[in-house]
């Protein structure tokens, strides 16, 4: 099994997801670029971000790799749903492109295999955002460079609570089935202890987003604790 040097460099590290939701004060490329740079200074080994403007702005501000994606829509397959979206992320500066790797219908009617094949031919590094162990198996078989538990929680990060934790059972199963393969833990990692637990469960790297880069959610957790 050959692992690209850039992917190898992420082993054992923290990846920070830098995203803001529509209508929020920080929903500007410049704000996201500043946030990304702050995370880099704090020790992030890579930045995951969404949207062409954010990818471009962040790529120009940080030295660590950028994992780019393009969210188009809100339901079904909306994380980099087509080849066109993926190529646009590359053009914007993404070092790795994250793609929904489930077998759900895509807007252009193509399969995930159809979407991935041209990208592999073009030398694009890809990250498979997965929901189930079957998604992970398919992604590994198709030739994705990284697989991630991104979609296993089945809800948007903004809807998760502090009590929700990462999907360690899925992570352990994937790490056991594919030893040595880059299996990333993403989703509902809210504390340093949870990040450490994910690494101990076999994660190649751990992605943390909301708990670091979404002040609205963080503030709501503190406010809820005091209200209780």
From TrEMBL:
<dbReference type="InterPro" id="IPR013785">
    <property type="entry name" value="Aldolase_TIM"/>
</dbReference>
<protein>
    <recommendedName>
        <fullName>Putative N-acetylmannosamine-6-phosphate 2-epimerase</fullName>
        <ecNumber>5.1.3.9</ecNumber>
    </recommendedName>
</protein>
<comment type="pathway">
    <text>Amino-sugar metabolism; N-acetylneuraminate degradation; D-fructose 6-phosphate from N-acetylneuraminate: step 3/5.</text>
</comment>
<dbReference type="GO" id="GO:0019262">
    <property type="term" value="P:N-acetylneuraminate catabolic process"/>
</dbReference>
<dbReference type="GO" id="GO:0005829">
    <property type="term" value="C:cytosol"/>
</dbReference>
<dbReference type="InterPro" id="IPR011060">
    <property type="entry name" value="RibuloseP-bd_barrel"/>
</dbReference>
<dbReference type="GO" id="GO:0005975">
    <property type="term" value="P:carbohydrate metabolic process"/>
</dbReference>
<keyword id="KW-0119">Carbohydrate metabolism</keyword>
<keyword id="KW-0413">Isomerase</keyword>
<dbReference type="GO" id="GO:0047465">
    <property type="term" value="F:N-acylglucosamine-6-phosphate 2-epimerase activity"/>
</dbReference>
<dbReference type="GO" id="GO:0006053">
    <property type="term" value="P:N-acetylmannosamine catabolic process"/>
</dbReference>
<dbReference type="InterPro" id="IPR007260">
    <property type="entry name" value="NanE"/>
</dbReference>
<comment type="similarity">
    <text>Belongs to the NanE family.</text>
</comment>
<dbReference type="Pfam" id="PF04131">
    <property type="entry name" value="NanE"/>
</dbReference>
<comment type="function">
    <text>Converts N-acetylmannosamine-6-phosphate (ManNAc-6-P) to N-acetylglucosamine-6-phosphate (GlcNAc-6-P).</text>
</comment>
